[in-house]
Design brief:
By secondary structure, the protein is an alpha+beta fold. It is built from six helices and 20 strands. A hairpin with a 6-residue loop joins strand 18 and strand 19.
Amino acid sequence: MSFSGKATYSAGVDLPEIAEDVSDIIGLVSPFETPLLAHLGDAKRPAFSTLHEWVEDSLLPNTDTINQTTFTPAANTATAITVTQGVRFQAGDLLRPGNSTEVMQVTAVAGNVLTVVRGFGGTTATALTNAMRLTILGNASLEGADAAPARFTNRTRRQNYTQIFAATVEVTGTMQAVRQHGIADELDYQKQERMRELLRDLENCVINGTAPAANQTGNAGTRRSMNGLIRQIATNQFVPGQGGFPAGGGAGQDLSETLINTAMRAAWEQSSGRIDTIVVNSVQKRRINQFIPSNARHYMGDSRRVSDIVSVYESDYGVCNVIMTRWMPADTVLLLDSSRIEVLPLAGRSFQFKPLAQTGDAVAGQALGEYTLEMRNENAHALIRGLNAA
């Protein structure tokens, strides 16, 4: 006998007599993580102007290159050597050409021409070539000699600009009053959403930001913006297979340990620090994971897990945390010395919410912050681009 009494479906398929069952949890699908900002941490000090500047210095260079194509009488006996920067040398300097065992002693400097003693100390003279690197081992002063002229370097001033990140929030009085699923206060919810978006945008601009070509400090028609990490690295920019940089794996553009170590070495040779952070998109993160051969992947039998994740990469040139962020270009890898990088808020302008004047039946405010990037000694960092992004 079929059921003929009252049931949940008796009043219709829309279940008008039954209270709705809607979860109090709202699912947020859009990505908003900021792993690079989390890795760098909060700045220890703020910026105090929309034009933020810092001062850099360096020691006197101890290398130069030969700028000469012919040698008289021969490449292994010539004693007059033309270099690129003669100002870097002084009488008494001991030089090593290239990777040879020869040591040369400088006896005189005239402009960019050095007069040297070849095979100094009984070392074997080597054949010099154009663009060969000369390393100054040190200077040998004469006992009792007068003091040599003072030498020094000039400090340089670098700069970046602050960028305002802002989003408006406005909620009607009615929207605040009605009961909603999963939200106790609509205004607070909108604040949180906009703050997540601004933090996401800050990380994106720290990596990819570009300042205007003109009126960088901004005016009524120019929006001020910061230069990001990629924009500020000029010295150590590498493309696989170009400019003496080695080719990668696969067809030559796949990221490999050779590429990473060559770039890290270039930065190491020019700075007193070490690369400690590798920033990549998911594509290049998978390439780094593949540095572990398949027969060396770790299987944890107790938890039935297979691990082939590289979170820390250690080489002769530094121990690096590998940071994966969605906002990195897929064909690019950043190699950073994080001790030289800070994301600074303008004083009193870190992310905050400011209420706006109420002009009607609505509550309004603005989520905002103003930040800049300080990246000291750009040649202490490196960048590899043009990688296979597939």
